[in-house]
Write a structure and sequence with these properties.
The structure is a single chain. The chain is mainly α. Helices cover about 75% and strands about 10% of the residues. Strands 1-2 form a two-stranded antiparallel sheet. The chain is rod-shaped, with a radius of gyration of 37 Å. It starts with 5 loop residues before the first helix and ends with a helix.
């Protein structure tokens, strides 16, 4: 397998097997050269059939070197996005929302108590002053 990326591998195959540029003999030589580089893939028909199909092993062409790494990283990122976006972040949002509501409730109660104390003190003072 080569370390080049998949697009350049496909471009190389397309360039080397271009019938408008190369003669039949050169195409055969280029095909054998590509088979040495990427391998040959033989597809047999049903059992007992005489039909076989031989071609360049495109698995080695498309999934070569860094392409495999990129595919693995993309798959891991996709799974991580699903796990974080659909499971973890909604749970965290719910937890923080509940905690925030509790803090708002506690703050409201404390403020109400403070206001009541201040209002109670003022009414008591005003009552004492009137008497």
């Amino acid at each position: 397998m080569t370390i080049e990326n998949s697009i350049s591998n496909l471009n190389e195959i397309d360039d080397l097997l271009d019938g408008d540029v190369y003669t039949d003999i050169q195409l055969e030589e280029n095909y054998l050269q590509l088979i040495e580089k990427y391998g040959e893939w033989t597809i047999n028909g049903k059992t007992g059939s005489l039909v076989t199909f031989k071609t360049i092993d495109f698995r080695n062409v498309v999934f070569a070197g860094l392409s495999i790494t990129y595919s693995i990283v993309a798959l891991i990122s996709f799974l991580l996005a699903i796990i974080l976006g659909k499971i973890l972040f909604p749970l965290l949002a719910k937890m923080y929302k509940n905690a925030n509501e509790e803090l708002v409730d506690i703050s409201s109660l404390r403020t109400a108590e403070t206001v009541n104390e201040m209002a109670g003190k003022k009414t008591k003072k005003t009552k004492k002053e009137w008497f």
